[in-house]
Amino acid sequence: MKMDSVVHDTKREQKPDSEQISLPLQVAEAAWDKKAMGLTILDMRGLVSYTDFFVICSGNTDRQVRAIVDAIQETLYVQGERPIGVEGRQEGRWVLMDYGDVVIHVFADPERDVYALESIWSDAPTVPIETPAGLERPSTYLAH
């Protein structure tokens, strides 16, 4: 079946690209404020029906993961955004935050490599972002 024949959610199609990418970029800024590493934004539009973007990042410890999650929630709350659900916050190893159009995955390393979302969703385009210096993901954690 060609993509043209698929029924689309017209509400999502009517938003301009700059508006669609605004929420993931706000998530990135909040995460970077808490020194999140290796932040990646995957464009899931056309691949899944439940979200437009995945934001994936890492913290060094469960405490840092929770700080990243809290910063994201506080930033989005001020913008009037409320999560549909948040899972895994107490453990702080893999926190999933569902904001509808954006699903956020905050991992503690090395769990990120165990679940390898970037590999699973390797057909998703990566949104180009400029990662602040020092917040790149250390190569020792990258899956081979």
Describe this structure in words.
There is one protein chain. Helix content is 33%, strand content 20%. It is globular, with a radius of gyration of 15 Å. The chain has a domain at 20-115: Beta Polymerase, domain 2, CATH 3.30.460.10. The protein has a five-stranded mixed beta sheet. The chain has helices at 10-14, 17-33, 62-78, 111-115, 117-120, and strands spanning 37-43, 53-59, 85-87, 94-98, 102-108. A hairpin with a 6-residue loop joins strand 3 and strand 4. Helix 2 crosses helix 3 (62-78). With 144 residues, it is of the alpha+beta class. The longest helix has 17 residues, at 17-33. The protein is built from five helices and five strands.
